[in-house]
Amino acid sequence: MSSHRRSRSPEAATDSRRKDYSSHDRYVHRRGELEDGRRREGSRRDDQDRDRGRRDRGSDRYRERDRRDREDRYRERERGSDEDADRSRKDYRKERRSRSRTRRRDNRAEDTERDKEGYRRRDRERDRGRDRERNPVSRSKDIERRPRSCSPPSRFKPKLTRGSRSPKASLDEPPKEKEKPNFNTSGALAAASNTLNNVVLKYTEPVDSRLPPSSVRYRLYTFKDGQVVGEPLILSTQTAWLIGRDRLVADIPVDHPSCSKQHAVIQFRHVVKKNEFGDKEAKVRPYIIDLESANGTMLNNTKVPESRYVELRDGDMLKFGFSTREYILMTENVD
Asked: What global pTM score does this model have?
Protein backbone atom coordinates (compact mmCIF):
# COMPACT_ATOMS: atom_id res chain seq x y z
CA MET A 1 0.00 0.00 0.00
CA SER A 2 2.90 2.26 0.57
CA SER A 3 3.88 1.75 -2.99
CA HIS A 4 0.55 3.05 -4.12
CA ARG A 5 0.54 6.10 -1.64
CA ARG A 6 1.21 9.24 -3.40
CA SER A 7 3.90 11.47 -2.13
CA ARG A 8 2.86 15.01 -1.23
CA SER A 9 4.86 18.00 -2.05
CA PRO A 10 5.74 20.61 0.63
CA GLU A 11 3.66 23.24 -1.13
CA ALA A 12 0.56 21.06 -1.04
CA ALA A 13 1.12 20.44 2.68
CA THR A 14 1.41 24.15 3.31
CA ASP A 15 -1.78 24.82 1.39
CA SER A 16 -3.65 22.16 3.36
CA ARG A 17 -2.31 23.62 6.58
CA ARG A 18 -3.50 27.05 5.53
CA LYS A 19 -6.93 25.68 4.80
CA ASP A 20 -7.04 24.09 8.21
CA TYR A 21 -6.02 27.33 9.94
CA SER A 22 -8.49 29.33 7.96
CA SER A 23 -11.35 27.00 8.92
CA HIS A 24 -10.24 27.15 12.55
CA ASP A 25 -10.13 30.90 12.38
CA ARG A 26 -13.57 30.96 10.90
CA TYR A 27 -14.82 28.73 13.70
CA VAL A 28 -13.23 30.89 16.35
CA HIS A 29 -14.51 34.02 14.74
CA ARG A 30 -17.99 32.61 14.52
CA ARG A 31 -17.84 31.49 18.11
CA GLY A 32 -16.71 34.93 19.15
CA GLU A 33 -19.55 36.46 17.24
CA LEU A 34 -21.94 34.16 18.98
CA GLU A 35 -20.48 35.03 22.34
CA ASP A 36 -20.57 38.72 21.44
CA GLY A 37 -24.22 38.31 20.43
CA ARG A 38 -25.01 36.56 23.64
CA ARG A 39 -23.18 39.22 25.53
CA ARG A 40 -25.06 41.91 23.70
CA GLU A 41 -28.35 40.08 24.28
CA GLY A 42 -27.55 39.80 27.93
CA SER A 43 -26.63 43.42 28.15
CA ARG A 44 -29.87 44.33 26.39
CA ARG A 45 -31.81 42.25 28.84
CA ASP A 46 -29.96 43.83 31.68
CA ASP A 47 -30.77 47.21 30.28
CA GLN A 48 -34.41 46.23 29.91
CA ASP A 49 -34.52 44.94 33.46
CA ARG A 50 -32.84 48.09 34.65
CA ASP A 51 -35.30 50.22 32.73
CA ARG A 52 -38.22 48.17 34.05
CA GLY A 53 -36.97 48.61 37.59
CA ARG A 54 -36.61 52.30 37.06
CA ARG A 55 -40.06 52.37 35.56
CA ASP A 56 -41.47 50.40 38.48
CA ARG A 57 -39.82 52.73 40.94
CA GLY A 58 -41.12 55.70 38.98
CA SER A 59 -44.63 54.23 38.85
CA ASP A 60 -44.55 53.78 42.64
CA ARG A 61 -43.56 57.39 43.00
CA TYR A 62 -46.31 58.39 40.59
CA ARG A 63 -48.86 56.30 42.50
CA GLU A 64 -47.80 57.84 45.77
CA ARG A 65 -48.02 61.30 44.26
CA ASP A 66 -51.44 60.58 42.75
CA ARG A 67 -52.66 59.24 46.09
CA ARG A 68 -51.47 62.40 47.87
CA ASP A 69 -53.13 64.55 45.19
CA ARG A 70 -56.41 62.66 45.59
CA GLU A 71 -56.32 63.06 49.37
CA ASP A 72 -55.63 66.78 49.00
CA ARG A 73 -58.52 67.17 46.56
CA TYR A 74 -60.86 65.24 48.90
CA ARG A 75 -59.88 67.44 51.84
CA GLU A 76 -60.43 70.57 49.76
CA ARG A 77 -63.82 69.26 48.61
CA GLU A 78 -64.90 68.52 52.19
CA ARG A 79 -63.70 71.91 53.30
CA GLY A 80 -65.60 73.50 50.41
CA SER A 81 -68.82 71.53 51.21
CA ASP A 82 -68.62 72.66 54.85
CA GLU A 83 -68.10 76.23 53.71
CA ASP A 84 -71.06 75.92 51.29
CA ALA A 85 -73.25 74.52 54.08
CA ASP A 86 -72.27 77.37 56.38
CA ARG A 87 -72.90 79.84 53.59
CA SER A 88 -76.33 78.32 52.83
CA ARG A 89 -77.25 78.46 56.54
CA LYS A 90 -76.22 82.08 56.73
CA ASP A 91 -78.18 82.87 53.55
CA TYR A 92 -81.27 81.09 54.93
CA ARG A 93 -81.05 83.03 58.20
CA LYS A 94 -80.65 86.29 56.32
CA GLU A 95 -83.65 85.46 54.13
CA ARG A 96 -85.78 84.61 57.18
CA ARG A 97 -84.77 87.83 58.87
CA SER A 98 -85.57 89.83 55.75
CA ARG A 99 -88.95 88.09 55.41
CA SER A 100 -89.85 88.75 59.03
CA ARG A 101 -88.77 92.38 58.64
CA THR A 102 -90.89 92.70 55.48
CA ARG A 103 -93.88 91.08 57.21
CA ARG A 104 -93.55 93.36 60.22
CA ARG A 105 -93.22 96.35 57.92
CA ASP A 106 -96.34 95.31 55.98
CA ASN A 107 -98.32 94.74 59.18
CA ARG A 108 -97.20 98.09 60.48
CA ALA A 109 -98.24 99.72 57.21
CA GLU A 110 -101.66 98.00 57.34
CA ASP A 111 -102.16 99.10 60.95
CA THR A 112 -101.23 102.68 60.13
CA GLU A 113 -103.53 102.63 57.07
CA ARG A 114 -106.36 101.24 59.20
CA ASP A 115 -105.77 103.89 61.83
CA LYS A 116 -105.70 106.59 59.18
CA GLU A 117 -108.97 105.31 57.73
CA GLY A 118 -110.54 105.29 61.19
CA TYR A 119 -109.28 108.82 61.81
CA ARG A 120 -110.66 109.96 58.44
CA ARG A 121 -114.05 108.37 59.15
CA ARG A 122 -114.14 109.98 62.59
CA ASP A 123 -113.19 113.34 61.11
CA ARG A 124 -115.87 113.04 58.43
CA GLU A 125 -118.52 112.21 61.00
CA ARG A 126 -117.41 115.11 63.20
CA ASP A 127 -117.44 117.53 60.24
CA ARG A 128 -120.85 116.25 59.16
CA GLY A 129 -122.23 116.79 62.66
CA ARG A 130 -120.83 120.31 62.77
CA ASP A 131 -122.35 121.11 59.37
CA ARG A 132 -125.73 119.83 60.52
CA GLU A 133 -125.56 121.96 63.64
CA ARG A 134 -124.61 125.06 61.66
CA ASN A 135 -126.94 124.59 58.69
CA PRO A 136 -130.28 122.91 59.53
CA VAL A 137 -131.45 123.31 55.90
CA SER A 138 -128.84 120.87 54.65
CA ARG A 139 -129.95 118.49 57.42
CA SER A 140 -133.52 118.61 56.16
CA LYS A 141 -132.24 117.88 52.64
CA ASP A 142 -130.32 114.90 53.97
CA ILE A 143 -133.48 113.65 55.63
CA GLU A 144 -135.37 113.99 52.34
CA ARG A 145 -132.67 112.07 50.48
CA ARG A 146 -132.82 109.13 52.85
CA PRO A 147 -134.83 106.11 51.71
CA ARG A 148 -138.32 106.00 53.06
CA SER A 149 -138.93 103.76 56.00
CA CYS A 150 -142.01 102.65 57.88
CA SER A 151 -141.65 105.41 60.47
CA PRO A 152 -140.03 108.86 60.02
CA PRO A 153 -136.77 109.42 61.91
CA SER A 154 -137.29 111.20 65.18
CA ARG A 155 -135.40 114.44 65.70
CA PHE A 156 -134.95 114.06 69.41
CA LYS A 157 -133.94 110.66 70.73
CA PRO A 158 -134.66 110.22 74.43
CA LYS A 159 -131.89 108.75 76.48
CA LEU A 160 -132.73 105.29 77.71
CA THR A 161 -131.49 104.09 81.04
CA ARG A 162 -130.92 100.49 81.97
CA GLY A 163 -134.20 98.73 82.63
CA SER A 164 -136.33 101.42 80.93
CA ARG A 165 -138.36 100.90 77.76
CA SER A 166 -138.66 103.14 74.74
CA PRO A 167 -141.72 105.47 74.77
CA LYS A 168 -142.89 104.00 71.45
CA ALA A 169 -142.90 100.49 72.84
CA SER A 170 -144.74 101.66 75.98
CA LEU A 171 -147.40 103.40 73.89
CA ASP A 172 -147.93 100.80 71.16
CA GLU A 173 -147.42 97.45 72.90
CA PRO A 174 -148.36 96.20 76.31
CA PRO A 175 -145.51 95.05 78.52
CA LYS A 176 -144.37 91.55 77.66
CA GLU A 177 -144.72 88.92 80.29
CA LYS A 178 -141.63 87.13 81.41
CA GLU A 179 -141.26 83.57 80.29
CA LYS A 180 -142.45 81.21 82.96
CA PRO A 181 -140.39 78.20 84.00
CA ASN A 182 -141.16 74.99 82.14
CA PHE A 183 -141.25 71.91 84.35
CA ASN A 184 -142.20 69.48 81.61
CA THR A 185 -140.16 66.33 81.13
CA SER A 186 -137.44 66.18 78.52
CA GLY A 187 -135.00 63.67 77.07
CA ALA A 188 -135.48 60.03 78.03
CA LEU A 189 -138.27 60.91 80.49
CA ALA A 190 -140.16 62.75 77.77
CA ALA A 191 -139.71 59.82 75.40
CA ALA A 192 -140.93 57.43 78.07
CA SER A 193 -143.93 59.61 78.89
CA ASN A 194 -144.76 60.36 75.23
CA THR A 195 -145.74 56.82 74.36
CA LEU A 196 -148.99 55.27 73.23
CA ASN A 197 -149.57 51.52 73.14
CA ASN A 198 -145.85 51.01 73.84
CA VAL A 199 -144.95 53.07 70.74
CA VAL A 200 -142.81 56.19 71.16
CA LEU A 201 -144.47 59.15 69.45
CA LYS A 202 -142.35 61.36 67.20
CA TYR A 203 -144.54 64.37 67.89
CA THR A 204 -145.14 66.35 71.08
CA GLU A 205 -147.90 68.94 71.28
CA PRO A 206 -146.76 72.56 71.72
CA VAL A 207 -147.57 74.83 74.64
CA ASP A 208 -150.19 76.78 72.65
CA SER A 209 -152.21 73.63 71.86
CA ARG A 210 -155.94 74.32 72.32
CA LEU A 211 -159.28 72.78 71.48
CA PRO A 212 -161.09 74.61 68.67
CA PRO A 213 -164.06 76.73 69.74
CA SER A 214 -167.52 75.20 69.68
CA SER A 215 -168.72 78.02 67.40
CA VAL A 216 -166.69 76.66 64.48
CA ARG A 217 -166.92 73.08 63.28
CA TYR A 218 -164.02 71.59 61.31
CA ARG A 219 -164.67 68.59 59.08
CA LEU A 220 -162.21 66.52 57.01
CA TYR A 221 -163.60 64.83 53.88
CA THR A 222 -161.82 61.98 52.08
CA PHE A 223 -162.03 61.76 48.26
CA LYS A 224 -160.80 59.07 45.90
CA ASP A 225 -161.27 59.32 42.12
CA GLY A 226 -163.67 62.24 42.70
CA GLN A 227 -165.92 60.25 45.05
CA VAL A 228 -166.38 60.74 48.80
CA VAL A 229 -165.04 57.83 50.81
CA GLY A 230 -166.77 57.13 54.12
CA GLU A 231 -168.13 59.66 56.56
CA PRO A 232 -166.44 63.05 57.18
CA LEU A 233 -164.21 63.24 60.23
CA ILE A 234 -165.07 65.94 62.79
CA LEU A 235 -161.80 67.49 64.01
CA SER A 236 -163.22 69.69 66.78
CA THR A 237 -163.07 66.90 69.35
CA GLN A 238 -159.25 66.78 69.72
CA THR A 239 -156.35 69.21 69.80
CA ALA A 240 -154.13 67.11 67.49
CA TRP A 241 -154.68 64.40 64.90
CA LEU A 242 -151.82 62.03 63.99
CA ILE A 243 -151.79 60.72 60.41
CA GLY A 244 -149.79 57.60 59.48
CA ARG A 245 -149.60 53.92 58.67
CA ASP A 246 -149.17 52.68 62.25
CA ARG A 247 -152.74 51.96 63.36
CA LEU A 248 -151.64 51.58 67.01
CA VAL A 249 -151.01 55.32 67.29
CA ALA A 250 -152.53 56.95 64.17
CA ASP A 251 -155.76 58.92 64.58
CA ILE A 252 -156.25 59.05 60.81
CA PRO A 253 -154.79 55.83 59.36
CA VAL A 254 -153.47 55.78 55.79
CA ASP A 255 -152.59 52.40 54.28
CA HIS A 256 -150.58 53.47 51.25
CA PRO A 257 -147.00 52.00 51.37
CA SER A 258 -145.45 55.37 50.41
CA CYS A 259 -146.70 56.91 53.68
CA SER A 260 -144.67 56.78 56.88
CA LYS A 261 -145.81 55.19 60.13
CA GLN A 262 -146.07 58.65 61.71
CA HIS A 263 -146.43 60.89 58.68
CA ALA A 264 -147.98 64.23 59.69
CA VAL A 265 -150.11 65.94 62.35
CA ILE A 266 -153.07 68.33 62.18
CA GLN A 267 -152.62 70.60 65.21
CA PHE A 268 -154.96 73.27 66.64
CA ARG A 269 -152.98 76.21 68.10
CA HIS A 270 -153.94 79.40 69.90
CA VAL A 271 -152.13 82.11 67.88
CA VAL A 272 -152.29 85.91 68.10
CA LYS A 273 -152.30 87.70 64.73
CA LYS A 274 -152.95 91.18 63.40
CA ASN A 275 -155.84 91.77 61.05
CA GLU A 276 -155.89 94.14 58.09
CA PHE A 277 -156.66 97.11 60.38
CA GLY A 278 -153.68 96.39 62.66
CA ASP A 279 -155.80 95.05 65.51
CA LYS A 280 -154.65 91.90 67.28
CA GLU A 281 -156.85 88.85 67.17
CA ALA A 282 -156.33 85.67 69.15
CA LYS A 283 -157.80 82.60 67.52
CA VAL A 284 -157.47 78.85 67.56
CA ARG A 285 -156.45 77.85 64.05
CA PRO A 286 -155.63 74.47 62.46
CA TYR A 287 -152.07 73.79 61.26
CA ILE A 288 -150.39 70.95 59.38
CA ILE A 289 -146.85 69.79 60.23
CA ASP A 290 -144.86 67.13 58.37
CA LEU A 291 -142.95 64.76 60.70
CA GLU A 292 -139.96 64.38 58.34
CA SER A 293 -141.77 61.74 56.33
CA ALA A 294 -140.10 59.79 53.54
CA ASN A 295 -142.24 61.12 50.67
CA GLY A 296 -143.58 64.36 52.11
CA THR A 297 -146.95 66.04 52.51
CA MET A 298 -148.69 68.10 49.81
CA LEU A 299 -150.89 71.11 50.56
CA ASN A 300 -152.80 72.27 47.47
CA ASN A 301 -150.20 70.45 45.29
CA THR A 302 -147.33 72.24 47.10
CA LYS A 303 -144.90 70.35 49.30
CA VAL A 304 -145.04 71.28 52.97
CA PRO A 305 -141.63 72.00 54.58
CA GLU A 306 -140.52 69.45 57.15
CA SER A 307 -141.03 70.15 60.87
CA ARG A 308 -142.74 73.50 60.24
CA TYR A 309 -146.31 74.56 60.97
CA VAL A 310 -148.36 75.68 57.97
CA GLU A 311 -151.81 77.17 58.57
CA LEU A 312 -154.83 75.41 57.05
CA ARG A 313 -157.77 77.31 55.64
CA ASP A 314 -161.26 76.45 54.47
CA GLY A 315 -161.15 74.32 51.30
CA ASP A 316 -157.49 73.29 51.54
CA MET A 317 -156.57 69.90 50.05
CA LEU A 318 -154.04 67.55 51.67
CA LYS A 319 -152.23 64.56 50.13
CA PHE A 320 -149.81 62.23 51.88
CA GLY A 321 -146.96 60.45 50.07
CA PHE A 322 -147.93 59.07 46.67
CA SER A 323 -151.45 58.18 47.75
CA THR A 324 -154.22 59.26 45.37
CA ARG A 325 -156.60 60.02 48.25
CA GLU A 326 -157.36 63.70 48.81
CA TYR A 327 -158.30 65.12 52.21
CA ILE A 328 -160.24 68.39 52.08
CA LEU A 329 -160.82 70.59 55.13
CA MET A 330 -164.22 72.30 55.44
CA THR A 331 -165.26 74.79 58.14
CA GLU A 332 -168.77 75.53 59.30
CA ASN A 333 -169.96 78.23 61.69
CA VAL A 334 -172.43 76.96 64.24
CA ASP A 335 -175.05 79.50 65.40
From this structure: 0.45
